[in-house]
Design goal:
By secondary structure, the chain is mostly helical. The chain has 3 domains: 3-60, no CATH class; 71-163, Receptor-associated Protein (Up-down Bundle); 178-412, Type II secretion system (T2SS), domain F (Receptor-associated Protein, Up-down Bundle). Helix content is 75%, strand content 5%. Strands 2-1-3 form a 3-stranded antiparallel sheet. Helix 9 packs parallel to helix 18 (354-411), helix 16 packs antiparallel against helix 17 (339-351) and helix 17 (339-351) runs antiparallel to helix 18. Residues 46-66 have low confidence and may be disordered.
Amino acid sequence: MPVYAWQGMDKKGKNRKGIVDAESLRQAKNRLKDQGYFLTSIKESGGNGDDEKKGSFSTLRNFTFVGKVKDGDIVIMTRLLANLVRANIPIVEALTAIIDQVDKPHFKLVLSQVRDNVNEGKSLSESLSQHQKIFPNLYINMVAAGEQSGALDVVMERLADFMESQFKLKKQVQGAMTYPILMFFFAIGVVGLLFTVVIPKMVKLFQDIKATLPLPTRLLIWVSDFAANYWWLILLMIFAAVWAFRRWKNSDKGGLVWDRFLLRVPIFGELVLMISVSRFSKTLATLLTSGVPLLGAMDIVKNILNNRVLVGVLEEARENIREGESIAQPLKRSKEFPPIVTHMIAIGERTGDLESMLSHVSDSYDTQVEAKIGALTSILEPAMIIFMGAVVGFIVMAIMQPILSLNQQIRM
C-alpha cells in the first residue's frame, strides 16, 4: 500500500504535516479531508521505486517530521507482530495492522517500506536489514533464525522480552545518575552566582576598609576576579578539554585505556562489569535459544558491549571456539569475567544446557545491578550535599573571617 507525505492546516489554522497510507492518491486526500485537514501539498513517499516517483528517505528530508524511533516503540511493535503471527495472520497483513497503530510518521514509513518489500517476496529479516539504524544486527539475526526454524512468533516474543529487560536496565542506570548530575549543575550554578554577584560586592567593601585580608579571603577574591574577567577563557578551556578527551577516547589506544580504567575504578567499575556481564549473558542466551549458531551469536554479542577490553576478550574467545575450544576457558584466562560466571558457563557446556545457565547468570546479575544502583544512589545523594556544603562553607568562611576580625578590632 502506498504511503503519502502531506502538509496542510487543521481546523484551527495550525500548520500540520505527516504521512498516511492509502490505496490511491484520491483515497489519501479523502481520508485527510474527513479528518478535517486542508491540504497544501501531498506526495507519494514510500516503497522501493524511483525517488522522483516514490520518494523514500531522500524525499522525506524535505519534511521536518522525521525523528528517532525509541526502543519502546520497537518493543511494542515486536510484541504485536508476535501475537499476530501466532494467530496465523500473514506477515503483510500483520504489518499493515501494526502500521495503522503506529503514531510516529518516520516509524510508520519504515514499516511501510518493510511491508512492501515482504509483499514483493523478500523475507522479513532481509526487509528489516535495510533499516539497520532502527533494527540492529541482533534483531535481524533473531528474526532470520525464527523464519528458518518456523517459530517466528516464539522468537519475536523472546526478542520483545529481551528488549524490555535491556530497556529497563538502561532506565535504571539513567535514573540513578539523573539526581547526582542535577545536583552537580545546581552546585555549579550556586557557586557561579556567588562568584559573579555576591563576592564582587564584598570585595569593594574590603577594598574600602584597606584591611589585611586572610589567605582564604585573598584566594577567594582572586578566583572571583579570574572568573569575572576571564569567563570566556574558562569556557574555552572546558570545551577544549572535552574535545581533546573525546578524541582521545575515540582512538583505539585511548579507548582501550579508558575502558580498562572504567573496569578498574572503585565502586563504579564493579557496576560497569555487572552491566556488561548481564548484557552478554542475556543476549547470548536469547540468540542461542532462538537458533542462531554460536559463532554468529558471538559476533553479535561483541557488538553490543560498549567496553573494548571485553570486546577483545570475546574476539579471542570466538577464535578459540572456532578451533574447538570451549567458551568458558578463554573467558577464564582473560580474568576479566568473574569466576562464578565462567564456572556456570562451563557447567552449562558440560550439561548441554548453556542457554539456561546463561539466563540464570543474567537474572542473577540483573538483581545485583539493581541493588548496586540503589546503593550508589543512596551514597551519591549525601555525597553531593556534603560537597555543596563544603564549597559554600568555604566561601562563607572566607567572607565572614575578615568581617569578624574587623568587628573585633573595632571593639578593642
